[in-house]
Design goal:
alpha/beta; Alpha-Beta Plaits; Rossmann fold; 2 domains; 4-stranded antiparallel β-sheet; 10 helices
Length: about 300
């Protein structure tokens, strides 16, 4: 395969990228043309905040060409739309080495242990002879089969680790669970495998709901995947929400009131510097504290008074 490389200024990068995708490029990325030189320019924002500038002074827009498509075929629509000046366009082509991209991608996702009780296993590793089976490791091991996909929650992110670890230490047999912002369904599935009773996964993204239902079926557990307006009334023993600080602030009354008296609320997706503020936001409903921290993220947990 081949890549088309185009040089452009900062204010041209986004429009050029969009035009290349519309022209049929398989993918488009933007690189710092001055990278690895003394003119290299850092580009970043505060944690959780998109940088104000989305390109460098000198950019290299890289478009992956479909098989059989010549660079000139990709450039012509850009000339016609006035996105690119044919007299001033600076471009080149480079070869992309052949590779088994599926196998290469899979190699980046191996089995992920979470504490001593949970093992997340991508489907392509499920028959590995060196991995323990549940029946061999005893009832204490919870093995979850889950693939990286369209919904957040492969088990590799620190916030997911924190929530899984909390569940492994605290879920009681038969407890009802609400996983709000369920993504892939990993937390809901883990709760069920750890002994929880009726479990509901809710997400605003329909793809996440589909993913939760599918992954629950693969793992042979009963998890109800729903959109928010389908969520049943009532309270549960445990509410867990691994999303981000802003939605957690807005959802505080709803999430807290979904917890039964004596039940627990577990929140993650929160940077450590946001912890005190989040504790204050939820203080009218219940008392939260930092349960654990990892790599700059925290898990907050609290129990609703009886």
């Amino acid at each position: 395969m081949r890549e088309l490389l185009l040089s452009c200024r900062e204010n041209e990068a986004e429009r050029l990228s969009d035009a290349l995708l519309e022209a049929g490029a398989l993918s488009v990325s933007v690189e710092d043309a001055d990278g690895d030189t003394d003119r290299e320019q850092p580009l970043y924002g505060e944690p959780g905040i998109e940088p104000e500038v989305l390109a460098w002074d000198h950019n290299r827009v890289v478009a992956l060409l479909p098989e059989g498509v010549e660079p000139e075929d990709m450039l012509q629509p850009l000339y016609e739309a006035g996105v690119l000046d044919p007299q001033q366009a600076q471009w080149s082509v480079r070869e992309v080495p052949d590779a088994d991209w599926v196998r290469l991608t899979q190699s980046q996702f191996g089995p992920i242990p979470v504490g001593e009780r949970i093992l997340i296993v991508p489907s392509w590793h499920k028959n590995d002879e060196d991995l323990p089976l549940v029946q061999d490791a005893g009832e204490d091991l919870v093995r979850i089969e889950l693939d990286p996909g369209l919904a957040f929650g492969t088990g590799s992110h620190p916030t997911t680790h924190l929530c899984l670890d909390w569940l492994a230490h605290h879920v009681q047999r038969g407890q009802t669970v609400l996983d709000y912002g369920c993504g892939s369904g990993i937390l809901a599935i883990a709760a069920r495998k750890l002994g929880a009773g009726h479990t509901v996964g809710v997400d605003i993204d329909e793809q996440a709901v589909i993913s939760t239902r599918y992954n629950a079926q693969v793992n042979q557990v009963d998890v109800q995947g729903l959109l928010p307006d389908e969520m049943p009334q009532g309270q549960t023993d445990l509410v867990v929400a691994n999303i981000l600080a802003n939605p957690l602030r807005m959802l505080a009354p709803m999430l807290a009131n979904r917890v039964k008296p004596g039940g627990h609320l577990v929140l993650s997706g929160i940077y450590d510097w946001q912890a005190e503020e989040m504790i204050a936001v939820y203080s009218p409903y219940l008392s939260l504290s930092v349960w654990q921290a990892r790599d700059g993220w925290v898990c907050l947990a609290g129990q609703r008074s009886v």
